[in-house]
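quick one before i forget lol
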Amino acid sequence: MNFERVTPESVGIRSKDIREFLKECYASGIQLHSFMLVRHGKVCAEGWYHPYSPDARHIIYSFSKTFTQIAIGFAEQEGILSLDEKLVDLFPQELPEKISENLALADIESLLTMSCGHAAELTTDDIEAYGGNWVKAFFAQEFVYRPHTMFQYNTTGTDLLSLILLKKTGQSLTQFLTPRLFDPLGIKDVYCSTMGDRVVDPDVPYSEVEAGGWGYHMRTEDLARFIAFLSQRGVWEGKRLLREEWFDRAFRKQIETDNEVYAPQTEHWKLGYCYQCWCNPYNDSWRADGLYGQYGYVIPEKDAFMIMTAAAVNTEKQLSLFDSILVDRMEEKALEENPKAWRKLQKKLNKLEIPAPWAIRQSWSEPLLHGKTFRIDNPSGISLEEFIGGEGHFGHSEWSVQTITFEIAQNQLMITYQQKKKDGKGSLTQTLNIGLDGKYRKSVLSDGTYYAAGKWVLANELELEIRYQEALAAAIIRLTFDETTLRLSVRSQMPEELDITKRKVRTLQGSL
């Protein structure tokens, strides 16, 4: 199925309201990367902010949880598992010496509703205390509450659902979903990070498990196909794939979220939780919800949904703008066409972009860097891709950066870096292009596509904004140098307030 493209007015939405929504998001500091607005099964507006594009995957974080939920639905439908199966029976080798009454009662469904009994989410420190065995750490954490009685957000519980599926079928989450969901929906370009890509080291127990709680990278239109399938309650192109009874349970409120344990601070997170998705302030409305503004927001009473990828901290504002400017103003019937407003909207959509840093060239500084090669002191063995990938770039590379060479020509800085395999059995030379004229330059490196721009901030200092196209936000690199030494420091464009946004290696240094 391909989505039909229509004017907003033909499905009861005003073109000017869409423009207003985009304007207000920008004014509120919400960096949208893409969106698709669908009503009556038709796309009435869509856009991608350069350098993000329709053919590129985007990290979707906890939006992934809804894919995991659907995988469990398929598994239940096929008799592979039952939601009342107890966790202690599924993981006898990972249990603590003393099994509490609450732990003994925890079952698969309590993971789906995030009510297994934990009072807090697992942290990196919790997992490291058990040598990186995140499953053992999960069961070691006290089950304070009787399962099904107290909501507490629990990403590791969703990752455990992915592991349960692997134990039951011998297939990863993606392998299991491919013939049942991805192939029928025509979704081809899918990637899911594993627990060993970020949460734990790649050589510890269960590191190979796909991260069902946070790991998917997907194209915006493929997310729209998935949400359309869910909106149609398991039917695709006239064929039922997943039984309707699953939707009767999975997409209605299962548990209250406004409690003393979770204590949500914003309105859209106080409305309750379904199976791995959140309730919205409309009848039977729900959303797949990922960190920093990755949404599949469904409004059945309006026969509409919205896909958004973004880099946003004030996600309550992002959702409330969508509610007030678009959802609340949708008309039941088609509106009179408004060619002028439609052309204005199309003009805006065709020019969406995240501006590159504005730059002034420094003719006296550039020759000091041009042509120099620095040997990199790299005791952590980090690859340059890991260093510059930005928030949402996951994975452990087999490469370790050894030297960096700089050239400046045609309004761009070219960084050629040589890497060697950590086992010493290979080398790789690549070049990262960085615009110095207020425009991004494109580079295709070993792990994907990058866009980069930079500006001089001192005579011996550059600030580089580097965007890995699948990641959430830019890596901001501060490059300083003198006659013999080089220093690269990195920070995320996003606030480093969560475990998932904290970088393990912050500096690289080199010398001539």
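fyi The first strand starts at residue 4 and ends at 5.
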